[in-house]
Specification:
EC number: 3.2.1.23
Mean pLDDT: 93
Helix content: 10-25%
Number of domains: 4
Protein name: Beta-galactosidase
Low-confidence stretches: 1-21, 934-950
Shape: elongated
InterPro entries: B-gal_small/dom_5, Bact_Beta-galactosidase, Beta-gal/glucu_dom_sf, Gal_mutarotase_sf_dom, Galactose-bd-like_sf, GH, GH-type_carb-bd, Glyco_hydro_2
Number of strands: 59
Pfam families: Bgal_small_N (PF02929), Glyco_hydro_2 (PF00703), Glyco_hydro_2_C (PF02836), Glyco_hydro_2_N (PF02837)
CATH architecture of the largest domain: Alpha-Beta Barrel
Largest sheet: 9 strands, antiparallel
Distance between the termini: 32 Å
Strand content: 35-45%
Keywords: Calcium, Glycosidase, Hydrolase
Number of helices: 12
Length: about 950
């Protein structure tokens, strides 16, 4: 990722090029505010809905719904309104007065709208500025020079209709799976230029240093020189050229060749600046600037997509322009934040679905490095040809010089007007390939198949050819499903396949809208709009971090360290243009905090840099950690990779000590008492060191417990074997030294339960079971009232929950989560969620209104399930949960996607990781429970770091 200083530099360039007061440059005067946080009040009249029928004030830019006017509509409202789809006839009438600088007299003056939803009619001083504009997501302008009055106040009147008179515009933009708005939602400004000026340019800059520019001009009245000067990011002139243009010329071509350009890619976003000047040196008539990058994009049919001669695979996401309080009216800060979040997931690409974004978003994609699909609107219906041609021109003219844009997308899922395909090349000198983002066979175009929501097995088939396969939507991320679940399997298919070009997850953020008619409640329109990896305000769900690991260009498969570990870790370089010697690596030896330490977390024992190996893109090699003497006395190793720009790629963690060693350090207590055993007709009762536990004779399950120093604990009704069938066949009591025990034998899936009470008050549970068929989950469960839980602290992977097919993105540490009832996609958007499946747990301490209790396991690879939750909403929550409230599991279920729910959640369609669990042989696990914290025993519950664990280099 690029340092902030480059971002600020680019920001300066944009505004310097349009904001200088020099007469040879374009000048602008904002009539509205510049973004959703900096607005200007205009007079406003709503024709229908809330606050209609009177003149009021409205912030511009904005959507009028978010200012308390009109009515809300979600695009799926067409289901109610039927085939003709005209559900809302709201219009907004805007009025605003303005003056024009006196020195603009004699110049050409235009009024520019960056975006207005949707049919827009403009009058200046009562005169029509031009034809009604139709289309919501595009910059348009009118020449109003002859309609202005200098030295007086001018009157602007704009009428905006939420629905278009052109039904193809409604079908393309409003009959869609997203919120529908009205209003002037992007800035409005005046633009003044000399009458002789450059209107726009189209640049084609190749990786070999070849630069071509087609310059469009107006008002050429005599032979005039046209020059271009190219500067690098440091401001050094690296090339220049000029031609003469003649009277009435409207276009001219400029050619330059520079030596050894710094090439643009998503990994190396090197930018240049071209300054175009009309007029002789010292007597400039007009000057303008464009940022660009030298790069060559090729679509090689039957092979792949190449950038600068290297095949690239898209690790991408779909993005709507969105902010909960202001809808599609946003600002540069939001655009920058989204680009940085996408980069943090180790993604390299973004699809601008289902319409072109604000220009600033593309500027940040240029400067930080993302491959972009810029898309014409057309959700599942296409624009008609006349209006479509105008909108293609507006989109391409605005965006053509962004090096980040590598493909044009001509609509989505059937919204493809094939008559528009050649229109893109009329304005794009580099003739980028046009694709169709589709979900129906037969819409492949230009050698690329973008079919949506194929599963793992159909993806295998498509990757056999003949087309390059690049799904522009896959793994639907509604709620906590999709996104990273199954991604590792499907990504491996694309990474290994010749024709795999990667793809774009649906989508970046939940489209949750702050409703001004419902006291600011956030509305995701139930199951329609909570489709994000992030929450509406960019809250990070667990999938965010899982994607970050799966897409890490430093690809490490090691899950556990071998017993003879010598410091070598196998690594694959999955960058396309970066050698791993350009990255930095560092490892830590850490020890984890204990159950009764005040805070969760870890202590760092040693930090050492790791020599960066020279591993070329696409190659494999080894990292060699310089292990210190005594490293085995630490609890774990953390390894961090940092990219060439100083941004963390990912941090991996591996255990050094197993659970048996950790349990041995936690279990001893100084205070002890004799263990007593009593029984009645229904129960056995064990008691030691102030702790009393009661087991039912008919089941062997814990049915009651108490601690003399606190209230009774409601942790009961277990162990129950989840999904198992069994009956009790025998029970006995036994003595084991100074400990007293109970043993129960069963016929069926559960084989035996063995309870042992120690003089310290620790209660040991040993159990054995066997599962003879594929199952979604396996293990034992207990009951505990969710309402009594305050927090949970544990040593294990976290802080996010996992699914069988989304194990990535979690780190080994001591974590603590406060109780919350968060539901991904629905809210409240509090992450990490308290409830879920948590992996590789050594111990977990529950803090409750009844006191604390602790559970420790001796065996590795235990999952803990906490309470009731689900991954995807639908007719019911998916996937189904085990019985009980708190479960200790050896296997957990996978989660599917919105498009793969049905019976058993159908997670298996997205790859092997989504299949049911097949466990072999009998499974035995030991759990240790301590119910409470006895008075005066706090120091005994700590465990002290042995002196040999203090490491030195």
């Amino acid at each position: 990722m690029i340092p902030v200083k480059y971002i600020l530099f680019c920001f300066f360039i944009v505004f310097w090029s349009v904001g200088s007061e020099a007469q040879s440059r374009k000048e602008i005067q904002y009539l509205s505010g510049v973004d959703n946080e900096n607005t200007v009040d205009w007079a406003f009249w709503a024709t229908a809905g809330r606050r209609a029928g009177k003149w009021e004030k409205i912030a511009v830019p904005s959507h009028w719904e978010q200012q308390g006017f009109g009515a809300y509509n979600y695009g799926r409202d067409y289901v109610t309104y039927g085939k003709n789809f005209r559900f809302n006839e709201e219009k907004g009438i805007y009025r605003h007065q303005f003056s024009v600088p006196a020195h603009w007299k004699g110049r050409k003056i235009s009024i520019v709208f960056e975006g207005s939803m949707t049919d827009t009619e403009v009058k200046i001083n009562g005169k029509q500025a031009g034809d009604k504009h139709q289309g919501s997501f595009y910059r348009f302008k009118y020449d109003i020079t002859d309609k202005l009055i200098f030295g007086e106040v001018n009157q602007l009147e704009v009428t905006v209709a939420k629905m278009s008179d052109d039904m193809s515009v409604n079908n393309a933009e409003r009959l869609a799976d997203y919120w529908i708005f009205g209003g002037i939602y992007r800035p409005v400004y005046l633009e003044a230029t000399p009458t002789t000026h450059i209107t726009w340019t189209a640049i084609d800059a190749k990786a070999d240093g070849t630069f071509r520019a087609k310059v469009h001009m107006e008002g050429i009245t005599a032979k005039t020189p046209l020059r271009v000067e190219i500067k690098d990011n440091d401001g050094t002139v690296v090339g220049a050229s000029w031609v003469d243009v003649n009277h009435d010329d409207s276009t001219a071509m400029l050619h330059v060749r520079i030596k050894d350009p710094k090439r643009w890619t998503a990994e190396t976003p090197n930018l240049y600046r071209a300054t175009f000047t009309l007029g002789p040196e010292g007597k400039e008539i007009y000057r303008t600037q464009e940022r660009f990058g030298f790069r060559t994009v090729e679509v090689r049919h039957g092979d792949g997509i190449y950038v600068n001669g290297v095949k690239v695979k898209m690790k991408g996401v779909n993005r709507h322009v969105w902010w909960p309080e202001t809808g599609r009216s946003v600002n540069r800060r939001i655009d920058l934040e989204d680009v940085k979040l996408i980069k943090q997931m180790n993604m390299n690409a973004v699809r601008c679905s289902h319409y072109p974004p604000d220009k600033s978003f593309l500027e940040f994609c240029d400067s930080l490095g993302l491959y972009v699909l810029d898309e014409l609107a057309g959700w599942q219906k296409a624009y008609g040809t006349p209006v479509g041609k105008r909108l293609v021109k507006e989109m391409v003219i605005r965006d053509v010089n962004h090096p980040s844009i590598i493909l044009w997308s001509n609509g989505n899922e059937g919204g493809h007007n094939k008559d528009l395909i050649e229109e893109y090349h009329r304005y794009d000198l580099s003739r980028r390939t046009v694709i169709h983002a589709h979900h129906r066979p037969g819409n492949e175009i230009n050698g690329i198949d973008c079919n949506h929501y194929e599963d793992y097995y159909s993806t295998q088939k498509i990757l056999e050819g003949p087309n390059i396969y690049m799904p522009t939507e896959f793994l639907h991320a509604q709620d906590d499903g999709g996104a990273a679940a199954g991604l590792a399997d499907i990504w491996e298919l694309h990474w290994r396949a010749k024709l795999g070009a990667g793809g774009f997850i649906w989508n970046l953020a939940d489209e949750g809208l702050v409703r001004t008619d419902f006291h600011g409640a956030i509305d995701v329109n139930k199951v329609n709009a909570p489709d994000g990896i992030l929450g509406p305000h960019r809250e990070k769900e667990g999938s965010f971090y899982a994607i970050r690991e799966i897409f890490s260009p430093v690809h490490i498969k090691v899950k556990t360290l071998p017993q003879n570990f010598s410091g070598e870790i196998a690594v694959e370089n999955r960058f396309h243009h970066t050698d791993l010697r350009q990255c930095r690596f560092q490892y830590k030896l850490v020890s984890f905090r204990k159950p009764y330490d005040e805070q969760a977390g870890l202590d760092t024992l040693l930090v050492k840099d790791v020599p960066s190996p020279a591993i070329a893109p696409g190659q494999q090699g080894r990292l060699k950690l310089p292990l210190s003497a005594g490293w085995k006395t630490a609890d774990a190793i953390w390894l961090t990779a940092v990219d060439p720009y100083g941004e963390e790629i990912y941090t991996w963690s591996w255990r050094i000590k197993n659970n048996a060693a950790i349990a041995k350090e936690i279990l001893p207590l100084k205070t002890k008492s004799a263990v007593s055993l009593s029984e009645d007709s229904a129960n056995y009762t064990l008691k030691a060191n102030g702790i009393t536990v009661v087991m039912a004779k008919q089941t062997g399950q814990l049915v009651d417990l108490a601690n003399d120093y606190s209230m009774k604990l409601s942790f009961t009704d277990g162990p129950v074997l989840v999904g198992g069938q069994y009956t009790l066949t025998a029970a006995r009591t036994f003595m084991d030294g100074d400990s007293q025990g109970l043993e129960f034998a069963y016929d069926g899936d559960l084989k035996n339960i063995r309870w042992t009470m120690y003089p310290s008050g620790w209660l040991k549970l040993d159990y054995t079971y066997q599962v003879n068929k594929p199952v979604p989950y396996a293990g034992v469960t207990f009951s505990y009232p969710e309402n009594y839980i305050i927090s949970a602290k544990w040593l294990g992977n976290g802080p996010y929950r996992v699914w069988k097919n989304r194990q990535q993105g979690v780190t080994l540490n001591t974590w603590e989560n406060m109780y919350n009832d968060a539901k991904a996609g629905i809210g409240p958007w509090i992450f990490p969620e308290f409830k879920g499946y948590f992996s590789d747990v050594s111990w977990m301490q529950f803090n409750t209104t009844q006191g604390k209790f602790l559970v420790v396991t001796e065996e590795d690879n235990m999952y803990v399930r906490l309470f009731d939750f689900y991954g995807i909403s639908g007719p019911k929550g998916y996937p189904a949960l085990p019985e009980g409230d708190i479960s200790f599991l050896d296997a957990i279920p996978a989660v599917g996607t919105k498009l793969a729910m049905g019976i058993n959640n159908r997670a298996e369609v997205n790859g092997p990781a989504g299949e049911l669990n097949s466990l072999t042989g009998p499974i035995t696990r030991t759990l240790h429970f301590y119910f409470g914290l006895p008075k005066g025993e706090e120091e005994n519950m700590q465990f002290v770091m042995p002196k040999e664990n203090i490491l030195t280099d």
